[in-house]
Amino acid sequence: MNNEFQNIPKVLRLLLPLCKKVDHRDNEKRTPLHVAVLYNQLIYVDILLQSGADISAKSVLHHNVFHYVALSLCSSEDKDKMFDRLINSPKLNPSLLTIKNLEGLTPLSMAIGYGTPHMINTIVSRIDTSLFQNELSMCIDMLAKRSKILPTAILERFLLSYHRPQESATLFHIICHYDNPELLKYILDYTQNRTHNLDKLLKQTDEHGYTPLLTAVYYGHKSMVEILLDCKVEYLHIMTHDKKNILHLIAQRQHEHVFKILNEKLNANDFSILMSPQPLQATPLHEISKTNNVLLCDSILKSYKEDKLQLFKHQNVYGRTIFHEACEYGRLEMIKYLTSDNLIKDEQIKIELLAIGDDEKRTCLHLAAAE
């Protein structure tokens, strides 16, 4: 055994000559080589490879050694050392760099999400990038999720090769699931410089009827919402398939920080349209009245300059007013607020509102009694 291997634990020096097979699998079908890579045991990796370990082995999740380098919790410097040792191994099968795990992630996608710039650059230089034509969205997803440092050279190469402006809407939806404003601005600028249809792209909805803006609002990504609102696109009033606009989502998710940005950006007419009752549809107040978030409810009502009584009287598809919703969910603080003199001074109006029956002729008192 080479002198460079003498520093390994004595137990390994004892075991290796006795273990004729070095590729035994654990319950996750990981080999000792997989484990050594994951735990950054570089000397052990060298010995296992020298002992005939299968560098192409895959775990039950279809991770290979390059997936495990990315997943290792060691430092970036140590990841690069391990990666270099494996990428330069004479036993390396180049196809390892293009094999997907069960999540559909190749080593490149994993490197973008968990690895280092060196790993990304090396993989890109070693593979035929045409193999990754269908992986752009996955790489963008990993980048948006994990990385705050943009590998702009790699992004430019992939986008120039495979990105089509009409596909930008998909990328925007992916990015807006995460809070990565730098990546969003990069893709926006890239797309805007290559198409005159940015407005149209930002209005496109996903399978649930969400635009990129609605996606960012749903997840409460304030900086992403601010960037999209600054695009000045007339798509604020788009509703999801379950009839929710941007204000419905803010109320449902109780994102006060997002509402503050929206309130600063909207003009009075926009706000009125978003709040206006539509026949048999819930208003944003129906959503917030299901909670005890009196602060957000008060902010929404103060921003609405039209007749508030029509909002209080409005019934959704089940015939319920906001008072029904608060009583149904037992929201005591919200009920106190909605019936306060600060909100409704006329006692008779309060009585009339609370006496409205839903589709089953149940008043607020019925629902409160059931609760």
Q: Which features characterize this protein?
A:
371 residues; mainly alpha; Serine Threonine Protein Phosphatase 5, Tetratricopeptide repeat; elongated
Please write out the topology.
Elements: H1 10-18, H2 32-38, H3 42-50, H4 65-71, H5 76-87, H6 107-114, H7 117-126, H8 136-146, H9 152-162, H10 168-175, H11 181-192, H12 198-203, H13 212-219, H14 222-229, H15 246-253, H16 256-265, H17 268-275, H18 284-288, H19 294-303, H20 309-313, H21 322-328, H22 332-338, H23 347-354, H24 364-370
Helix pairs in contact: 2-3, 2-4, 4-5, 4-6, 6-7, 6-8, 8-10, 10-11, 10-13, 13-14, 13-15, 14-16, 21-24
InterPro entries: Ankyrin_rpt, Ankyrin_rpt-contain_sf
Pfam families: Ank_2, Ank_3
Organism: Rotaria sordida
The dominant shape is elongated
Report the sheet with the most strands, covering strand number, pairing sense and barrel closure.
none
Helix percent reads 40-55%
CATH architecture assignment name of the largest domain: Alpha Horseshoe
Estimated structural class: mainly alpha
Assigned CATH superfamily of the largest domain: Ankyrin repeat-containing domain
Mean pLDDT: 90
Number of strand segments: 0
Query: How much is the radius of gyration in Å?
Result: 29 Å
Keywords: ANK repeat
InterPro entries: Ankyrin_rpt, Ankyrin_rpt-contain_sf
Protein name: Ankyrin repeat protein
Organism: Rotaria sordida
